């Protein structure tokens, strides 16, 4: 059963998606009245309440004897006038970005790895030939793991956890790509449409990590030399880029590397038509990816993943 936080996150993301559609179409107070009436707003309220309760519990705890300040304590120290509601709002954003998006990435990338045993084999072999002990795997040691890095980039390209970029409001009439944009128009970009455009990527709908490899890598294929890799911006760009991009890459590298080092991954259910069953409801609704994790047999005394 999913944790309460994940369940409320899914419901609140659906409410947020509906809110983003309704709010620009109806003036106040009509939009607020309609949104307050919607039954699934309860998920958002539960999420906000749960966040405030956790922040209150954290701030009420005795001082940590290890002298490691909490995240909220650091913010409160640097910004003593910050209001609890503002702190709660920031926490909501951090948790949503760091939980749903990462779980989406891990689920979809695992699916694509299982869908192509040759790619899974290459990524597994790279990790196991590089590291002899689990304790050797950390963010620093993974910086030179090229094929796994390519798998991560391709997973973010073919299935961006957030398919739409942050929205902006035009400050004046302008023209973008030949289309007239009136003053005050809210605009955004569809990340998924960009990364699936064959003008940007060869075989755009296929999971092919080799497009991200340097030319000297044995698995590199020249047919990808014209790919516009910079078109894949799963974390956004500019002032609106995700501030947690480095943490996200760290998590992705370490989790996947340890998973591939410790286990053989095998399909444990029906995979056919998985992509056709994916739905967007203000957040991705993903079918289960059934995986059997078979512990790798190693010499006695070798580390295991627990």
What would the keywords be for this entry?
46% helix; Cytochrome p450; 306 residues; mainly alpha; globular; single chain; two-stranded antiparallel ribbon; 9 helices; 2 domains
3D structure, described in words:
- The structure is a single chain.
- The chain has 306 residues and is mainly α.
- It folds into 2 domains: 1-82, no CATH class; 117-295, Cytochrome p450, CATH 1.10.630.
- It has helices at residues 4-25, 30-37, 41-60, 71-78, 84-115, 117-130, 146-158, 191-195, 245-262; strands at residues 168-169, 174-176, 179-181, 186-187, 263-267, 279-280, 284-285, 291-295.
- The strands form 4 sheets. Strands 1-4 form a two-stranded antiparallel sheet. Strands 2-3 form a two-stranded antiparallel sheet. A two-stranded antiparallel sheet has the order 5-8.
- Helix 3 crosses helix 5.
- It is globular, with a radius of gyration of 22 Å.
- It starts with a helix and ends in an 11-residue tail after the last strand.
State the low-pLDDT regions, or none. none
Q: What's the SSE pattern?
A: HHHHHHHEEEEHHEEEE
What kind of sheet is the major sheet? 2 strands, antiparallel
Number of strands: 8
Average of the residue pLDDT scores: 81
Count of separate structural domains: 2
Tell me the strand percentage band: 5-15%
Q: State the name of the first-level CATH class of the largest domain.
A: Mainly Alpha
């Amino acid at each position: 059963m999913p944790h309460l936080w994940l369940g409320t996150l899914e419901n609140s993301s659906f409410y947020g998606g509906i809110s983003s559609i309704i709010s620009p179409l109806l003036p106040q107070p009509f939009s607020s009245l309609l949104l307050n009436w919607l039954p699934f707003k309860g998920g958002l309220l539960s999420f906000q309440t749960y966040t405030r309760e956790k922040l209150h519990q954290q701030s009420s705890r005795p001082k940590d004897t290890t002298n490691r300040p909490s995240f909220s304590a650091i913010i409160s120290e640097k910004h003593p006038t910050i209001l609890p509601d503002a702190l709660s709002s920031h926490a909501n954003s951090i948790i949503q970005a760091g939980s749903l998006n990462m779980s989406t990435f891990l689920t979809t990338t695992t699916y694509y790895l299982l869908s192509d045993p040759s790619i899974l084999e290459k990524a597994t072999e790279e990790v196991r030939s590089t590291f002899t002990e689990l304790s050797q795997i950390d963010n620093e040691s993974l910086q030179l793991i090229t094929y796994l890095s390519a798998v991560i980039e391709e997973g973010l390209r073919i299935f961006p956890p957030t398919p739409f970029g942050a929205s902006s409001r035009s400050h004046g009439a302008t023209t973008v790509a030949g289309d007239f944009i009136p003053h005050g128009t809210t605009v955004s970009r569809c990340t998924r449409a960009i990364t699936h455009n064959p003008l940007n990527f060869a075989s755009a709908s296929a999971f092919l990590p080799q497009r991200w490899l340097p030319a000297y890598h044995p698995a590199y294929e020249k047919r990808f030399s014209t790919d516009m890799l910079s078109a894949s911006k799963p974390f956004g760009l500019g002032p609106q880029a995700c501030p947690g991009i480095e943490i996200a890459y760290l998590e992705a590298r370490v989790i996947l590397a340890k998973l591939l080092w410790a286990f053989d991954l095998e399909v444990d259910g029906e995979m056919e038509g998985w992509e056709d069953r994916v739905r967007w409801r203000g957040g991705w609704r993903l079918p289960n990816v059934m995986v059997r994790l078979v512990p790798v047999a190693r010499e006695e005394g070798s580390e295991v993943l627990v």
